[in-house]
Structure formats: structure tokens, C-alpha cells
Design a protein that fits this description.
By secondary structure, the protein is of the alpha/beta class. It contains 13 helices and 15 strands. It has 4 domains: 7-139, Response regulator (Rossmann fold, 3-Layer(aba) Sandwich), CATH 3.40.50; 148-249, Beta-Lactamase, CATH 3.30.450; 252-340; 343-475, Histidine kinase-like ATPase, C-terminal domain (Heat Shock Protein 90, 2-Layer Sandwich), CATH 3.30.565. A 5-stranded parallel beta sheet has the order 2-1-3-4-5, with helices on both faces. Strands 7-6-10-9-8 form a 5-stranded antiparallel beta sheet, sandwiched between helices. α1 (16-28) packs across α5 (114-147) and α9 (251-310) crosses α13 (441-451).
Length: 475
């Protein structure tokens, strides 16, 4: 296949007859020729070289230069232009040396015709283009390899020896490139992670398409341990089947993940402790209520009943007093039951139960409660969620009664697109949310919310009241 466009040829030949014969062969070769430039000296050839020259035909015996030195001189200026040597000397050693130095071909004058000359010129131009493309590709690879921000190393799975590393890898592991190439991939691993290399070694031998991602602990020159996300796969490199591993330092991410996990564990522990403490306090409160109040009322009632049996003239008086005490005990038990079980919840509606405890707070503490719960859709929420909402409202209203010194409270329960919104706001003395609370009330609320995928938020400042917001997300 001949070139599609005319080419410029530089002929470096001092013999006029050789110039004439070579020109005739070129004209008969079928090659499209734009210009043939001729030079008789090496210095003239150097001056004539420019970007328009497509190929140089060089005689090694010139008036100002002889032998291989002629090619070496020209090579310093020819750049990417292919050079074909035309010599009158059949010297295999000279021909081999010329080719090794970069000449495209070595032809003996008189031993070639126009067809061989055409093929040599064409192949020389194409080989040079291919070599230039390959060199450019290799330079691009080398640039990308060395300037890649990720750590890259190439190693042999047969013996774990490191074959090549990039600059980022040297910086990450704190080894110089020269030192790195004396190391084994095993030298970079912790004892735990060395075990992962053995299966990879065996897999690489049977699976050329090996591709493995893993997070491993690595050790740098200073003995410091850090974490790397490493992707490894087979490559063909310098005639061998090797493994290229690309790593990214994720130590900060791992430490952050561990901190988050620790915080979650600590938070869950605090919630669990708060729930247990709240349950224990509830038990103690129930016990005190039964012992100090209900038990005393019933004991007194039993005493009056005993007196009624022994006093025939005053039985009704003692029985009336016993009835009053029993009635008071019943009222106490009823009040205690309301604090434990939401009245009629599950039989009627959450809205009724919330209205009941709101009214109870107003009646017993003179705190005015404004409710916005009429639009809450009972059928859209599970009974367990409604019970959790009831307990949170009960807990927070109790906190307000004890600590807030508030005169008004705003209670809102509403459906939203993603779930249910609960807000309880008061105009009390508020508190500093940055200070750790000694009570368990808020932790108890947080624990109850978490059971139903709820997120709790507290907005409060000293003297500015307090607002509790709980978002229950659909599960």
C-alpha cells in the first residue's frame, strides 16, 4: 500500500551518478513524490532538515563524515524523521549497529530495485509512525502512572516482589523508589493481612481476570499502621503476568466510622440505662404510692370495720368512715392506673387520651394547655406508635409540671408525608441544652422515639422556654 499523499525525500549523497540512479528508481517506484532534496555533505543535510521532510536516504561515506559517525551526527537532528541507510559497503556489523542506533533499514547500493526501495521507504515511514505513537502512549502512561494521586504498585504474585511503584506510593509508605523495589508486598502488610495475600496468589495463577477489592491495614517505613482501600487485578507487564494494586488511604474515614460506631454504642448504652432507670423509678413511685397512700387508706378502713363490729351502738358511723377511706383508695388507684395505662387507648382514640392528660395538667397545676391534634389521623398510625406518642407527651408534660415554671403549653400532633410530627412547647424558664442533664426524662423520650424510627430535637435557651420536636418516620 503506497502513501495517499506526496512525500518529501531528503537524499544525502555526494556521488552525482548515484543521485541520478536513485532518483530514477524513486520515480519508477510508484511512490507519490512531492520533492526530492539532495545534499552532498552531512552539514548541508543537517541544515536542510525541517518538518516537511518525510524520509531521509543517507549515504554513510561523505566528504565531511564517514561510517557510523555520519548516522550518529544526523540522528541528533532528524528527530522523528525515519532514516534509511544506503551504503556501498556490505558490512553486517555496521548494518546491525545502525539499526540498533535507530536507523529504519540498511540497503546495499546495487542490490535493490524500485520495488524494494518503495517497500523500504513505505515500511520505514509506517514503522517510525508506529514507534512514535507507541513512545507517546508510553510517555502518557508513565505520566499518568507517576502523577496519579492514588498509590499504585505492580508486583509478582509468584514471589510477592515489587516490580514498580509510582510517586504517590513512595510518599504514602515513606520509601524511596529505589528502596521500594527491593521490598516484597509482604513487607507492607500487618500479620493479619498477610493471610489475605496467599489466596490471591493462588487465584491469580488460575484466573487471569482476577479483580479483587479489599480494605487492608498497611505498615509504612516508620512502622505506623494505616488503612487502604485496595483494588487489585492482573496485567501483562514486560512480558510477565503480574498484579497491579491501586490503593487509596482511608484511615480518616475508618477512624471516623469507628468513632461514629463507638458513639452509637455509647448512645445506645445511655438510652438503655435511661430506660432501665426510668422503669426503676416508675416501680419505686408505684411502690411508694401503694405503701404510703393506698395501703394507709385501706389499713384505716380495716380498722374502722373492726371497730364497727365491736360497737353495736355506732356501727354506721364507723362503716361510713370505712366507705370514705375505701372510696379514697379507689380514687388513688384509679389515678395511679391512669399514669400507667392511657385511658381507653385502643378502645377510643389517641386524641381523647391526649386531651385527658392535657386537661389533668391544667386542673392540677393551672398550666394552660393548647392542643392542636384534631387533624391527626388515627387510622394512619399503628397502635404501638400511638402508645409511644402518648408516653412521650405524658413524660414531657410531667417534666414541664416539675421544672419549667411555665404558664402555657402548646401540644401538636399531626400527620405529614413521611410520618407523624409531635411538638410540645412551653413558655417556662428553659435551660442550656449544651449542659448535660442529670435527669433521665429526655433520654427516656429519646429511647421511646428511637423504637419507632423517630428523631428527637430539643430547642431551649435560659429564660426562653423549651420546645420538644419528634419526627416519626414511616418504617
Amino acid at each position: 500500500m503506497l502513501p495517499n499523499s506526496p512525500i518529501n525525500i531528503l537524499m544525502v549523497e555526494d556521488n552525482k551518478e548515484e543521485q541520478f540512479l536513485l532518483t530514477e528508481l524513486l520515480n519508477d517506484s510508484g511512490i507519490l513524490i512531492k520533492n526530492i532534496f539532495t545534499c552532498a555533505r552531512i552539514q548541508n543535510a543537517v541544515d536542510a532538515i525541517n518538518e516537511s521532510i518525510d524520509i531521509i536516504l543517507l549515504d554513510l561515506s561523505l566528504p565531511d563524515s564517514m561510517g557510523i559517525r555520519t548516522y550518529k551526527t544526523l540522528r541528533n537532528y532528524s528527530g522523528d524523521i525515519p532514516v534509511v541507510i544506503l551504503s556501498g559497503i556490505s558490512d553486517k556489523q555496521l548494518a546491525l549497529e545502525s539499526i540498533q542506533l535507530g536507523a529504519q533499514d540498511y540497503l546495499i547500493k546495487g542490490d535493490f530495485d524500485e520495488k524494494l526501495l518503495a517497500k523500504t521507504i513505505l515500511y520505514s515511514i509506517e514503522r517510525k509512525k508506529t514507534a512514535s505513537t507507541l513512545m507517546e502512549s508510553e510517555e502518557r502512561y508513565r505520566y499518568l502512572f507517576n502523577n496519579n494521586p492514588a498509590s499504585i504498585l505492580i508486583w509478582d504474585p509468584a514471589n510477592f516482589n515489587i516490580i514498580e511503584v509510582n510517586d504517590a506510593c513512595c510518599k504514602e509508605y515513606q520509601y524511596s523508589n529505589k528502596t521500594f523495589l527491593t521490598k516484597s508486598i509482604v513487607d507492607l502488610q500487618t500479620p493479619e493481612d498477610i493471610k489475605q495475600l496467599l489466596p490471591m496468589n493462588q487465584q491469580a495463577k488460575i484466573d487471569f481476570l482476577l479483580h479483587k477489592n479489599s480494605r487492608r491495614q498497611q505498615v509504612n517505613q516508620s512502622g505506623e499502621i494505616f488503612f487502604m482501600d485496595i483494588a487489585s487485578h492482573n496485567i501483562e507487564f514486560k512480558g510477565s503476568s503480574l498484579i497491579l494494586s491501586l490503593g487509596i488511604n482511608v484511615t480518616e474515614n475508618v477512624l471516623l466510622e469507628n468513632a461514629i460506631t463507638d458513639a452509637k454504642i455509647k448512645n445506645q448504652k445511655e438510652i438503655t440505662e435511661a430506660v432501665f432507670e426510668a422503669q426503676e423509678k416508675e416501680k419505686q413511685a408505684i411502690g411508694r404510692e401503694l405503701h404510703d397512700n393506698v395501703n394507709q387508706l385501706l389499713s384505716s378502713a380495716r380498722l374502722y370495720i373492726g371497730l364497727a363490729r365491736g360497737k353495736e351502738n355506732l356501727p354506721n358511723q364507723f362503716l361510713d368512715q370505712s366507705e370514705g377511706l375505701v372510696t379514697a383508695a379507689i380514687a388513688e388507684i384509679r389515678s395511679l392506673s391512669h399514669s400507667l395505662i392511657p385511658p381507653t387507648l385502643g378502645i377510643s382514640e389517641l386524641k381523647d387520651a391526649l386531651e385527658y392528660i392535657a386537661d389533668d395538667l391544667t386542673a392540677t397545676s393551672a398550666i394552660k394547655v393548647h392542643t392542636d391534634i384534631a387533624s391527626f389521623k388515627e387510622n394512619a398510625s399503628a397502635e404501638e406508635l400511638k402508645l409511644s406518642i402518648y408516653r412521650i407527651v405524658q413524660e414531657q408534660l410531667n417534666n414541664i409540671r416539675k421544672y419549667s415554671k411555665a404558664s402555657e403549653v402548646w401540644l401538636k400532633v399531626a400527620n405529614k408525608k413521611e410520618g407523624v410530627l409531635l411538638k410540645i412547647k412551653d413558655n417556662g424558664i428553659g435551660f442550656d441544652t449544651t449542659l448535660k442533664s442529670k435527669g433521665v426524662g429526655l433520654l427516656n423520650i429519646k429511647a421511646r422515639a428511637a423504637l419507632f424510627n423517630g428523631e428527637m430535637k430539643i430547642i431551649s435557651f435560659p429564660g426562653k422556654g423549651c420546645e420538644l420536636i419528634v419526627n416519626f418516620m414511616e418504617q
